[in-house]
Amino acid sequence: MVDMTRAGFKASLADDAPPNGAAAPLAALWWIRKGEWDRAHEIVMAESSQPAAWVHAHLHRIEGDASNAGYWYRQAKKPVASGSIDAEWETIVDDMLAP
After folding, report:
1. Residues in CB range of 44: below 8 A, 6 or more apart
2. Percentage of the chain surpassing pLDDT 70?
3. d(Cα 35, Cα 31) in Å, to the nearest integer?
4. At residue 99, does pLDDT exceed 90?
5. Longest dimension (CA), the chain
6. Which of 15, 26, 41, 43 is least buried, going by the fewest C-beta atoms within 10 A?
7. Distance CA 96, CA 94 (A)
């Protein structure tokens, strides 16, 4: 597994696949940053956890579907994000990498 700090996770984006052992929501975030929206969406659709719901909300925010994003933020028990997409991605990554 790569260094699981935000910097290490971002460095793994040079690879062809998410880091070994990355939880599904974190793998979805990896695919988001690689521009693979559909692949990331498939991953979070198969999960029922709050972290997956948060990533799912982020995906629909990227898509511009505020209503659908709002539903997933509620499932994740997170406030609707209002900052930049990139800042939200980093916030989610940091949260998921926290010990």
Report:
1. 24, 25, 28, 52, 53, 55, 56, 59
2. 97
3. 6
4. no
5. 36
6. 15
7. 5
24 and 5 in contact (C-beta within 8 Å)?
Answer: no
| Amino acid in the structure at residue 43 | I
Tokens of 16: 């062809």
- pLDDT band at residue 3 under the 50/70/90 scheme: low
Extents of the domains making up the chain? 23-90
Given 1.10.340, 1.10.3470, 1.10.150, 1.25.40, which CATH number is that of 23-90?
A: 1.25.40
Task: For residues 64-80, give the mean pLDDT.
Answer: 97
Phi-psi region of 18 (alpha: psi -120 to 50; beta: other; left: phi over 0): beta
pLDDT at 2: 47
